[in-house]
Amino acid sequence: MSNDGNDENDGKTPETSWKTIDRVNKEQLASGDGVRFKRGDLFRGTILSQNGVTYCAYGEGEKPKFYAWNKNLGDATL
Fold first, then answer.
1. Bridge partner list, 42
2. Helices (H), 1-78
3. Total-model pTM
4. Which single residue of 1, 11, 47, 61 has CA 20 to 30 Å from 29?
């Protein structure tokens, strides 16, 4: 997963990564699959973890950040 990703992608490589946690939650993952989050990115939403699936980070830099609320409450346009 990457903030530069696209939920229309297949999600199988960094170049074809998904963008949102909602997209990951919709996927039927199998035991042994892995979901990797790009370091330095910020993700919003709640991950519905699946048994046997590994969740980790990739790339260099700061660990990815996860905010359970799916909206930026600091955004004055909300």
1. 65
2. 21-26
3. 0.84
4. 61
Q: Can you read off the two tokens belonging to residue 43?
A: 């993700």
3-state secondary structure of 75: coil
Residue at token pair 């997209």: 23
Q: Give percent of the chain above pLDDT 70.
A: 88
Give the residue among 52, 49, 28, 8 at the shortest CA–CA distance from 37. 49
Predicted pLDDT at 69:
72
Q: What are phi and psi of 25, to 5 degrees?
A: -65, -25
CA distances 37 to 41, 45, 70, 71, 78, Å, are 8, 13, 16, 19, 27
Residue written as token pair 């699936």: 53
The Cα–Cα gap between 28 and 30 comes to: 7
Q: For residue 31, what are the CA distances in angstroms to 3, 9, 45, 60, 63?
A: 25, 21, 22, 26, 24
